């Protein structure tokens, strides 16, 4: 019997959480960039974080 499908949501949750952590670190490092770059990058990072959080919310607990 193949149990790999049972673990797929666990791996996906882990991957999403790792990516969220990377984006949080990127947000922390935005202050090191010039204001123009901050204005360009902040909405993209926030949008990606929102999308990933929505994906996480859809996964079974």
| Structural class by SSE content | mainly alpha
Order of helices and strands: HH
- Straight-line distance between termini: 23 Å
Classify the beta-strand content into a percent band: under 5%
Gyration radius, to the nearest Å?
A: 15 Å
Number of strands: 0
Number of helices: 2
Q: Estimate the helix proportion, in percent.
A: over 70%
Oligomer: single chain
Low-confidence stretches: none
Summarize the structure.
By secondary structure, this protein is mostly helical. Helices cover 82% and strands 0% of the residues.
Describe this structure in words.
The protein has helices at 4-29, 35-58. It has 61 residues and is an all-alpha fold. Helix 1 (4-29) runs antiparallel to helix 2. It is elongated and about 45 Å long. 0% of the residues are buried. The mean pLDDT is 90.
Please supply descriptive tags for the structure shown above.
2 helices; 61 residues; mainly alpha
